[in-house]
Design goal:
This protein is mainly β. The protein has 1 helix and 22 strands. It is about 5% helix and about 35% strand. Strands 1, 3, 4, 6, 11, 12, 13, 15 and 16 form a 9-stranded mixed sheet that branches. A 7-stranded antiparallel sheet has the order 2-5-14-7-8-9-10, with no helix packed on it. A 4-stranded antiparallel sheet has the order 17-21-22-19, with no helix packed on it. A hairpin with a 2-residue loop joins strand 9 (about 160-165) and strand 10. One of its GO terms (molecular function) is cellulose binding.
């Protein structure tokens, strides 16, 4: 009995948070999904950029509830249900998309970092097995989850959930209903490698694939928390729901405990918490440079602007122009100031 208690204490200690939270997307600061609509290119507030969605109101595509989170994720107050319906077409594309992008200037694209999330489906409104779905992906698709029949693959359907690197499957499992899949992408942007951690339910994360070589390309504002579905002729749209929990990005040592950073350490009573380090905020907001992307990741054309002579230089990916912008308008060599929209130009 004594050994059992000591083992339990040791296991909890080893799985407690030891990293630094760079960005927290666990929906704890949102009273409802309608809070997402406060974000705009002119008013970049909140934890997420919200612009990749269909023509209906936000509640058609994203809803929040404690019922939508992994019960083991006591660090989250609620989870999100992200939906594709017959209106979920963005920007005139022929692909259904509902996606959230981190709104942060933290260094989530530098050094070694861990991108955490939990994902689940139900038998009600399940993802179609007859179409490819790209889930939790980067603009360059160097790493992502995929489900359904991959585009161009033979056959009628595919029930697997896959982790892919550069489009190649490195790990897979049958995607059963009501099973929470806990995931962490281990990304080393300096070494150009990516590894895969996974567990189900309340089990702690374990490394399933050691880091392998990848083209780890990201501007720090192009990770898509959501889903892009490729079209397939002859297969009509059906409503699909995806459940998300425990979304955050950390540096340092990986948190393997599904309770997550800052979660009660006493089984959820709230009397004590683990120690959590949060990276200090930056004053510069990061904005996606790829407002129009597709399955082949085609970016919106960037228009070059003339940099001013403000006596200072902005680094790569920094803001360099826009309405009411008062910072550096000259980019450090060899970067140029590129127009994104009326409120934002960026060095790259």
């Amino acid at each position: 009995m004594r050994f059992s208690v000591l083992s339990s204490i040791l296991a909890n200690a080893l799985s407690a948070s030891a990293g630094t939270i760079l960005w927290d997307g666990r929906f704890n600061d949102l009273s409802s999904s309608k809070d997402l609509e406060k974000w705009s290119w002119a008013n970049q507030v909140g934890p997420y950029q919200w612009y990749i969605h269909g023509s209906s109101s936000v509640t058609a595509y994203v809803n929040l509830s404690p019922d939508y989170k992994n019960p083991a994720d006591s660090g989250s107050k609620q989870g999100a249900k992200i939906t594709l319906d017959n209106t979920a077409y963005w920007n005139g594309q022929n692909m259904r998309r509902t996606e959230l992008i981190p709104q942060t200037s933290a260094a989530i694209n530098q050094g070694k970092v861990y991108y955490h999330f939990s994902l689940m489906r139900k038998n009600t409104n399940p993802p179609a097995t007859t179409r490819e779905h790209q889930i939790a992906f980067f603009e360059s698709h160097f790493t992502e989850l995929k489900s359904g029949l991959l585009s161009g693959a033979p056959g009628e359907s595919d029930s697997l959930l896959r982790w892919c690197v550069g489009g190649q499957t490195q790990w897979s499992t049958d995607w059963e209903a009501d099973v929470w899949h806990n995931v962490a992408y281990e990304i080393d942007f300096s070494a150009n490698t990516v590894g895969f951690w996974h567990s189900t339910g309340s089990d702690p994360l374990t490394q399933k694939v050691a880091p392998i070589s990848a083209s780890t390309s990201s501007n720090g504002a192009d990770w898509h928390v959501g889903v892009l579905e490729l079209p397939r002729s002859g297969y009509p749209d059906t409503t699909e729901d995806y459940y998300w929990s425990g979304v955050y990005i950390e540096s340092g040592s990986i948190t393997t405990n599904i309770a997550g950073p800052g979660a009660p350490s006493d089984g959820g009573s709230g009397n004590s918490t683990t120690s959590v380090t949060v990276a200090p905020p930056s004053t510069t907001l990061a904005t996606s440079t790829t407002k129009a992307s597709s399955a082949t990741t085609t970016s919106a054309p960037a228009t070059s602007t003339t940099a001013g002579s403000g006596g200072c230089t902005a680094a790569q990916w920094a803001q360099c122009g826009g309405i009411n912008f008062t910072g550096c308008t000259t980019c450090a060599s060899p970067y140029k100031c590129n127009f994104i929209n009326d409120y934002y130009s960026q060095c790259y």
